[in-house]
Specification:
The protein is mainly beta. 8% of the residues lie in helices and 52% in strands. It is built from 1 helix and 30 strands. The strands form 8 sheets. It has a 4-stranded antiparallel β-sheet, with no helix packed on it. A 4-stranded antiparallel β-sheet has the order 3-4-5-6, with no helix packed on it. Strands 7-8-9-10 form a 4-stranded antiparallel β-sheet, with no helix packed on it. It is globular, with a radius of gyration of 22 Å.
Length: 355
C-alpha cells in the first residue's frame, strides 16, 4: 500500500511539474516575441519599442504618412508617431505619444489642413489632432463603434466606418463636423477606394459581403456576396487590374474579388485569423497577417496568378501591418504583455526586387 501511495504521489508531482513548465513556457512565449522566422523576400531589421504604461498593450492600425508612421493602441488608447529614416532603424527617441481614451483605431491625415483624424470606439468620437505637436484639437461625435477611417480626395471628406451602428459617418475636415451618415446594411470592417470609379468598396464582416459606396451620393449603390469568404476583415485594392484582396478571418484565406465580374475568382490560403491586408502596387505584392502571427507574402505575377513566396512566423497577436510605398519597408505591430509593445521592421532583400 505504501509503495502504491508513493508511486501515485510521484506521478501527481510529475504531472504538476509538467503543467507548471508548460504554463511557464506559454507565459514566456507570450511575453518575449523573439526573432521572426526567416524569409526569402524580406530582411528583419529589428524592433521599434513603444512607450506604454499598461501591463497589456494591444496595437491596432499602422499608417504611413511620408516619413511618419502612426500606430494606434487599441487597449491603451495611446496614439504613437514614429519618425522614420531610410538609413537607420527608429529608436524610442524617435517616438512621440499622445495618450487618450481607449480604444484608438484608425488614423488619416488631411492633406489640406495637415491635421490628423483618429477614431476612438469607446468614446464614439473622431479626435482631430495636431500630428506635429501631438495634441487633441477637437472631438467629433460619431455613430457607435468607429473603427476604420479613410480620406476621399475626390469629395475631400473623411469616411468613418462604425461597426456597432452598421453605418458610415462623413466628416468635412474643413469645418471639422459630421455632415452625413450612410446606412451600410451590415457591420463594416475595412474599405478601399477605387480612383477610376471614385467608389469606395466596403466589406461587411457579419454578412460576408462587399458593398460599393458612392460618397458623392451618400449611398450604397451595389452589393455582392463574398462566396467562399467568411467574416471578411482587412482589404486592399489593385486599381490597375480591378481586384480587391480580402482577408477572410473565419476560414483563413485571401479572397480575390474581380471588380469587373463582381465575384470571388480565387482564394489563396494564408495564416489563421487574418486581419490586415496591404498591397504594394509597384512590386505587385500582397502582405497579410493575423491573430496567429503569420505574415504571408503573395506575389501577383498576372491578374489571375498568385504565388505565396513567403510564410513568416512572427508572434501571436501580431495582427496588423502596413507598407511604406516609397521604401517598400513593411511594419508589423506587436502587442506587449508586461514588456512594451513594439513595431517589427522588415526591408526588402535585394534579390526580392527582381522577382
Amino acid at each position: 500500500m505504501k509503495n502504491s501511495t508513493g508511486k501515485l504521489l510521484r506521478i501527481v508531482l510529475l504531472s504538476v511539474g509538467v503543467i507548471v513548465v508548460l504554463a511557464a513556457s506559454v507565459v514566456v512565449y507570450l511575453i518575449y516575441p523573439g526573432t521572426p522566422g526567416t524569409a526569402a523576400s524580406l530582411s528583419f531589421q529589428g524592433y521599434i519599442p513603444l512607450p506604454s504604461d499598461t501591463t497589456l498593450s494591444v496595437l491596432d492600425y499602422l499608417t504611413v504618412d511620408g516619413d511618419r508612421l502612426f500606430v494606434t493602441g487599441e487597449s491603451s488608447g495611446d496614439l504613437y508617431r514614429i519618425k522614420l529614416s531610410r538609413n537607420s532603424l527608429a529608436t524610442v527617441a524617435d517616438v512621440s505619444k499622445l495618450a487618450g481614451q481607449p480604444a484608438t483605431h484608425g488614423v488619416v491625415i488631411d492633406p489640406s489642413s495637415h491635421l490628423g483624424f483618429a477614431t476612438r470606439s469607446e468614446a464614439n468620437t473622431v479626435d482631430v489632432f495636431d500630428p506635429v505637436k501631438m495634441v487633441v484639437i477637437k472631438r467629433i461625435p460619431v455613430a457607435n463603434g468607429p473603427d476604420a477611417i479613410f480620406y476621399d480626395p475626390f469629395e475631400k471628406l473623411v469616411y468613418v466606418a462604425s461597426g456597432d451602428a452598421d453605418l458610415a459617418t462623413l466628416i468635412d475636415p474643413a469645418t471639422q463636423t459630421a455632415i452625413a451618415t450612410i446606412a451600410l446594411g451590415g457591420e463594416p470592417e475595412y474599405a478601399a477606394l477605387d480612383p477610376s470609379t471614385k467608389l469606395l468598396y466596403q466589406n461587411l464582416h457579419d454578412t460576408s459581403m462587399v458593398v460599393a459606396v458612392d460618397i458623392a451620393k451618400r449611398a450604397v449603390v451595389q452589393r455582392w456576396p463574398l462566396q467562399g469568404c467568411q467574416a471578411p476583415s482587412g482589404m486592399a485594392i489593385d486599381a490597375d487590374h480591378h481586384r480587391l484582396f480580402i482577408g477572410c478571418n473565419a476560414n483563413s484565406v485571401l479572397a480575390i474579388f474581380d471588380l469587373s465580374e463582381h465575384r470571388v475568382v480565387t482564394a489563396v490560403p494564408i495564416g489563421k485569423n487574418p486581419d490586415s491586408v496591404v498591397f504594394d502596387p509597384e512590386l505587385r505584392r500582397i502582405y497579410t497577417t493575423g491573430k496567429s502571427g503569420v505574415l504571408s507574402v503573395i506575389q501577383l505575377d498576372e491578374p489571375s496568378k498568385y504565388e505565396t513566396i513567403d510564410t513568416v512566423h512572427l508572434h501571436y497577436g501580431a495582427h496588423t501591418l502596413t507598407v511604406d510605398p516609397a521604401t517598400h519597408a513593411v511594419y508589423v505591430g506587436y502587442a506587449g504583455l508586461v514588456v512594451a509593445p513594439r513595431v517589427a521592421v522588415f526591408n526588402l532583400r535585394p534579390q526580392a526586387l527582381t522577382h
